[in-house]
Specification:
The chain is of the alpha/beta class. The chain has helices at 107-126, 153-167, 178-192, 222-244, 259-271, 305-315, 327-339, 359-365, 369-372, 385-397, 409-425, 433-439, 454-465, 525-531, and strands at residues 66-69, 72-75, 81-85, 94-100, 131-132, 139-140, 142-148, 171-174, 195-198, 215-217, 251-255, 273-274, 277-278, 288-292, 319-323, 349-352, 375-380, 449-451, 471-474, 477-478, 492-496, 507-515, 520-522.
Length: 534
């Protein structure tokens, strides 16, 4: 069910609550229509049940949170979509949907992404709270309809149908996980002509999806994450050589049998160099195992954890890659550790991706410091000045205990900026997904660099209104989209677990990161370990 691990392993629960104080530093909730996340079981948009009342403008719809769509009053809310932010009664409003697990097991993953959209909306409020239309006095405020997909395919599809069919949003920011993103895209947003931009779905399978140019992502493809792992492995292998000398290194790649796990495993196997040869070379045939342990979300075929673990124990790998989600811990890591033979004389290093960074990992490691020191992972991200500014903004606005360091949070913030700038770039064309996708061509090179942030918004508007382009650099890093695929490269950070045995935020080493542009791994393993308190 889970796909994208959070940097916040066990963050405080609850719905986002914002301090209603001075506008210049903290979110002023009096400027927004915000409702608690709850299941809405009331009457239709008319207020008393029966047929939806007819309308011409939003003001004709008297029920709270109702708007006029195709001459009928509809509710912005549904059983899955309860959070409404912005001046929704304004007929010129740009209404954007969000689709994340904002409640349930993955709340610590999804809630910060939804919060980040609201932080971005606040930026636009500071800049005037309006989005211009070229050649017109019309100004458009921003509205978000926030939906909880509960990390469930069926729920996500239902929520997306509400956003696309009822609310008729031109764009949805989400989903969080690759599988859900694929499901929503193929069943709802592509047929509905709605632009879908995910801040955290990284599956390679999304790259060549037949999407009519409607699926974008501010998160990088796992091809780049595989590049980062291949580069990081060389440092891990060199470290092992200090212990085992010229003996061969054994490697196991155990992965979930879904698009995410399989795509990442295949990409790494094709790029990995071990024992001085490509991993797939015949010389490594007895030193490498790639194991598909199945997909626990596939009810037709149970996972084969025991068989995969048995093969790993037989190989006794020095490095074990775990590419999946929660099951990489509950189904694989705990079993490997329990069955690892003392006769091996060593214990393996575990290397994981973003999907393994979930609360179950912290629970499994607990206070086992020796195990903690053997676990590293990668996650898209940057420690740029733009990100640090975003972190300050987020922590000033959001008071629910969630963290801006959560993977995908800065990417969600950037996604709202991208959608708004695309809306201005298309001029007076209708706000449709097909038109919005064309607007992305105005926010990539060539052109002067323009950083994310409220103080740059009006400059961006002026340039777009004049038909000019710029190179947008977000809180998540440069977003130099490939306009054919809708994705951009991104740096990758190395994560590790905290040294105090708590379930708090893991460490992000500033000494070790993969430079996607230069295709190199910066820093050294020793510096990374020091940065991680090892």
């Amino acid at each position: 069910m889970k796909r994208f691990g959070a940097l916040g392993l066990l963050l405080g629960g609850g719905i986002a609550s914002f301090a209603a104080v001075a506008c210049d530093g903290v979110f002023d909730v009096s400027r927004y229509h915000v409702v608690d996340d709850a299941v809405i079981n009331g009457a239709d948009a008319g207020g008393e049940g029966g047929a939806a009342p007819s309308c011409t403008v939003n003001a004709d719809c008297v029920a709270e949170y109702s708007v006029c769509r195709k001459n009928k009053c509809v509710s912005l809310q549904s059983e899955d979509c309860a959070r409404i932010v912005g001046d929704y009664k304004n007929d010129n409003a740009i209404v954007v949907g969000s689709l994340f697990p904002t409640a349930g097991d993955d709340q610590s993953t999804g809630l910060p992404m939804q919060n980040a959209i609201e932080v971005a909306i606040e930026d636009f409020r500071k800049a005037g709270n309006v989005v211009p239309v070229p050649g017109s006095s019309v100004r458009r405020p921003l509205v978000m309809v926030g939906c909880n997909d509960n990390s469930d395919d069926a729920t996500a599809v239902r929520a997306a149908r509400h956003l696309v069919d009822d609310v008729q949003v031109p764009a949805i920011i989400g989903a969080c996980f690759s599988g859900i993103t694929m499901k929503v895209a193929t069943e709802v947003t592509i047929p509905g002509g709605t632009l879908l931009i995910s801040p955290s779905a990284t599956s390679v399978a999304l790259t060549n999806l037949a999407d009519n140019g409607l699926v974008w992502r501010t998160a990088p493809s796992d091809v780049i994450q595989a590049d980062a792992h291949a580069a990081f492995f060389l440092q891990i292998e060199a470290d092992w050589r200090k212990t085992i000398g010229a003996n061969p290194i054994n490697v196991a790649i155990a992965h979930k049998g879904d698009a995410y796990g399989s795509g990442l495993a295949q990409s790494l196997a094709a790029k990995l160099v071990m024992n001085s040869y490509p991993a797939i070379d015949n010389v490594n045939s007895t030193h490498l195992k790639v194991l598909d342990y199945g997909d626990p979300d596939d009810t037709t075929k149970p996972p084969t954890y025991a068989e995969a673990i048995s093969q790993i124990i037989t190989l006794k790998p020095h490095v074990i890659y775990l590419f999946g989600t929660t099951e990489t811990i509950t189904g694989m890591l705990t079993g490997i550790e329990a069955q690892w033979p003392s006769s091996a004389g060593y214990k393996p290093i575990y290397l994981a991706a973003d999907g393994t960074l979930v609360s179950e990992l912290a629970a499994a490691v607990g206070t086992k410091d020796e195990l903690r020191r053997r676990i590293f992972g990668t996650i898209p991200g940057t420690n740029s000045a733009n990100f640090k500014t975003f972190r300050i903004l987020y922590n000033s606005f959001v008071k629910d205990g969630s963290s801006p360091d959560m993977g995908g949070t800065a990417n969600s913030y950037d996604a709202l900026y991208n959608v708004v700038f695309a809306a201005v770039a298309i001029g007076d064309k209708p706000l449709t997904g097909a038109n919005l996708k064309d607007g992305f061509a105005k926010i990539v090179p060539p052109g002067p660099t323009l950083n994310v942030g409220s103080n740059q918004i009006n400059t961006a508007f002026q340039m777009l209104l004049a038909g000019q382009s710029f190179d947008f650099v977000g809180a998540s890093g440069p977003l130099d989209y490939d306009l054919a695929t809708g994705e951009a490269p991104s740096d990758m950070l190395i994560w590790c677990l905290p040294s105090d045995g708590t379930k708090a935020l893991p460490g992000i080493t500033t000494e070790q990161y993969y430079d996607a542009a230069g295709k190199t791994m910066s820093g050294t393993l020793d510096l990374a370990r020091k940065d991680c308190g090892m």
